[in-house]
Design brief:
Elements lengths: L15 E3 L2 E3 L1 H24 L4 E2 L1 H9 L11 E5 H14 L4 E4 L1 H6 L15 E5 L3 E3 L13 E9 L8 H15 L2 H7 L10 H8 L3 H14 L6 E3 L1 H6 L5 E2 L6 E6 L2 E6 L2 H9 L14 E4 L4 H6 L8 E3 L3
Parallel strand pairs: 4-8
Antiparallel strand pairs: 1-2, 3-4, 5-6, 6-8, 7-13, 8-9, 9-10, 11-12, 13-14
Helix pairs in contact: 1-3, 5-8
Length: 320
């Protein structure tokens, strides 16, 4: 599943108009940093036999644009839960400076309890380049790497009512809410109106645990049901955003599609998957684009925190 060797020549950075959208040199430099991360990630995945595919806007960009969506500013991949769990260990050992594996556990380890918020503690991983800047308000504590990143989403067994039973899915929802829910949601978990199929005292004990311990229990539940369903989902989205489930058969075959001059792995059923996510995706619908993020591909985020006024002209994608 190895992508082509990355060759970032100067033509990548030349400004151009794509689909009526002006793509600046700075935006292209941001893309270049993301492609560098992807190249490192891909090489390690190839050596260890880890499966991954382009996902969300990156998959859409590969299919429709043969590269980034012109107004997009991130790069997403997904992995089956079992590969994701292995990657979490392997990447921490294999990644070399300036690349950093970040997940909920690594971020929590760098924060004081007072600095912990669910805004910053997400149920997926990122690989960041610490010699760049990508700060999404509200900014995380400066001890946490806030460089340009790629997102890595775990694919879990989605609720199909058969292999993953309604009872198991209800437990997943309770554990997810106990980990990421706002205080009022956690309080509601313990009321008679909510039936979590769990002992309430056990659930209360979990809610009172440190966040890392709560998340570990949630992930252990997800790992315990790997392989029982015919469907995949991004579990946090399935539970909180009703993002639905999609057939594992979409991923039975892996093919490669061009992406900014290289080939990247995509699921063979990409058409069905993109239709599930976006409906009719054939015609681009331009948006203001991107995350509300302060980007600088040439300056470490630590420099930005120390002297933000110096970099006042740093590109802000999603605000411009």
């Amino acid at each position: 599943m190895k992508a082509d060797k990355l060759d970032l020549n100067e033509t990548l950075y030349e400004p151009e108009v794509r689909y009526g959208y002006q793509v600046s040199t700075t935006r292209k430099k941001i893309w270049g940093k993301m492609l560098e991360i992807l190249s490192v990630f891909d090489e390690i995945c190839g050596r260890y036999g880890l499966r991954y595919w382009a996902a969300y806007g990156t998959l859409l960009g590969a299919v429709r644009h043969k590269g980034f969506i012109p107004w997009d500013d991130d790069l997403d991949v997904c992995m089956p839960r079992e590969d994701y769990a292995r990657a979490a260990q392997i990447m921490k050992e294999e990644l070399q400076d300036p690349f950093v594996w970040q997940d909920l556990y690594t971020n929590l380890n760098q924060c004081t309890p007072e600095e912990v918020t669910t805004t910053h503690m997400l149920p997926f991983a990122q690989i960041s380049n610490r010699m760049t800047t990508a700060i999404s308000p509200p900014a995380m504590p400066p001890v946490i790497c806030q460089g340009i990143w790629i997102d890595i989403f775990p694919l879990d067994d989605g609720f199909d009512g058969q292999g993953l039973t309604p009872e198991a899915f209800q437990i997943e929802k309770a554990l997810c809410a106990a980990t990421f829910g706002k205080p009022e949601l956690k309080a509601r978990l313990l009321t008679p109106e909510f039936d979590p199929i769990m002992d309430r005292e056990d659930l209360k004990a979990i809610i009172d645990m440190p966040m890392a311990d709560r998340f570990r229990i949630f992930e252990q539940m997800l790992e315990s049901v790997v392989g029982v369903s015919t469907m995949y989902s991004y579990k946090h989205g399935e539970i909180f955003n009703n993002s639905g489930v999609f057939s594992k058969s979409f991923f039975d075959e892996t093919i490669r599609l061009p992406f900014e001059g290289i080939d990247i792995p995509v699921p063979g059923g990409y058409h069905e998957l993109l239709t599930h996510w976006y409906g009719d995706y054939s015609e681009p619908r331009m948006s203001s684009g991107g995350h509300i993020t302060i980007y600088n591909p040439d300056v470490p985020y630590t420099d930005y925190f120390e002297n933000p006024d110096k970099y006042i002209d740093t590109l802000k994608i999603g605000i411009d």
